[in-house]
């Protein structure tokens, strides 16, 4: 269980290797990688700036990992989120869930992403031909998070 | 009291962090006090439905008490991931 909030890019295979190298009780590893798209709000996007809340961000991501591990039988979790200047095609976020069987890993990876979208203090600013603008939060993200509250 | 601002709130107010002398007992009172002080606060807090609040790094709402609080943060809904 660990989180990183960093400017630098990350290497997915290296991250998986770090989780699985020291143990043999993991049967399933699910990863999600988020990338910067070249379109946003119907406008071409040429660059993105990601602001975050140092200290609070790490705490929020750790809380999300803790909740996932209380909910599913996981052997390892990892969240990496970048901040600073990014361009289309760049990796932004990595979530990894590892468990003995695939069901828990699939669900936990989606759970962590849904909570990260609405609970982790990051704010995106996109540069478009009309200038730079802050990205609006999407109702769909609230809905995606809320469905995990249902019994 | 330490007050933090993020994203477009930071841009409209012109700083990400400041010390504010205040006797406000709730977040709402602090917002009203800042709004009356200068136009840049009025511009940032014009639509509070677009603003989220954390007191001492815990998400809360505009009616939250500031008794004993050391830090208040204002920010738009989060857009990470």
Tally of separate helices of chain B: 3
Radius of gyration of chain B: 12 Å
The largest sheet of chain A is: 4 strands, mixed
Q: Percent range for helical residues of chain B?
A: 25-40%
| Percent of residues in β-strands of chain A | 35-45%
The assigned structural class of chain B equals alpha+beta
Q: Give unreliable regions of chain A as ranges.
A: none
Give the helices and strands of chain B as they follow along the chain: EHEHHEEE
Most extensive interface: pair and counts?
Answer: A-B, 27 and 15 residues
Q: Count of DSSP E strands of chain A?
A: 10
Distance between the termini of chain A: 26 Å
Shape of chain B: globular
Strand order of the largest sheet of chain A: 1-6-8-2
- The count of β-strands of chain B is 5
Which strand order does the major sheet of chain B show? 2-1-5-3-4
β-strand amount of chain B: 15-25%
Shape of chain A: globular
> Count of helical segments of chain A?
4
- Secondary structural class of chain A: alpha+beta
Notes on the structure:
The complex is a heterodimer of chains A (151) and B (81). Chain A has helices at 12-20, 56-71, 102-119, 139-146, and strands at 2-6, 28-35, 39-40, 43-44, 47-52, 76-82, 84-86, 91-99, 122-128, 131-134. The longest helix of chain A is centred in the C-terminal third of the chain and has 18 residues, at 102-119. In chain A, helix 3 (102-119) crosses helix 4 (139-146). With 151 residues, chain A is of the alpha+beta class. The radius of gyration of chain A is 16 Å and the shape is globular. In chain B, 30% of the residues lie in helices and 23% in strands. Chain B has a 5-stranded mixed sheet. Chains A and B meet through strand 5, helix 3 and strand 9 of A and helix 1 of B.
């Amino acid at each position: 269980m660990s989180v990183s909030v960093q400017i630098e890019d990350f290497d997915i295979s290296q991250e998986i290797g770090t989780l699985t190298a020291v143990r043999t009780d993991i049967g399933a590893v699910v990863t999600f990688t988020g990338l910067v798209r070249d379109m946003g709000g119907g406008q071409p996007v040429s660059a993105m700036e990601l602001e975050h809340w140092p200290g609070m961000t790490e705490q929020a991501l750790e809380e999300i990992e803790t909740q996932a591990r209380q909910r599913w039988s996981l052997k390892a979790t990892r969240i990496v989120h970048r901040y600073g200047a990014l361009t289309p095609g760049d990796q932004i976020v990595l979530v990894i869930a590892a468990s003995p069987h695939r069901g828990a890993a699939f669900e936990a990876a989606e759970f962590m992403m849904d909570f990260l979208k609405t609970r982790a203090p990051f704010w995106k600013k996109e540069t478009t031909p009309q200038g730079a603008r802050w990205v609006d939060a999407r109702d769909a993200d609230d809905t995606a998070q809320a469905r995990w509250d249902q019994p | 009291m330490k007050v933090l601002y993020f994203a477009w709130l930071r841009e409209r107010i012109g700083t990400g962090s400041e010390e504010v002398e205040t006797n406000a007992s709730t977040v709402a009172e602090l917002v009203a006090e800042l709004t009356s002080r200068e136009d840049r606060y009025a511009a940032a807090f014009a639509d509070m439905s677009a603003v989220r609040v954390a007191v001492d790094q815990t998400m809360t709402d505009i009616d939250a008490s500031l008794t004993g609080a050391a830090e208040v943060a204002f920010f738009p809904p989060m857009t990470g991931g």
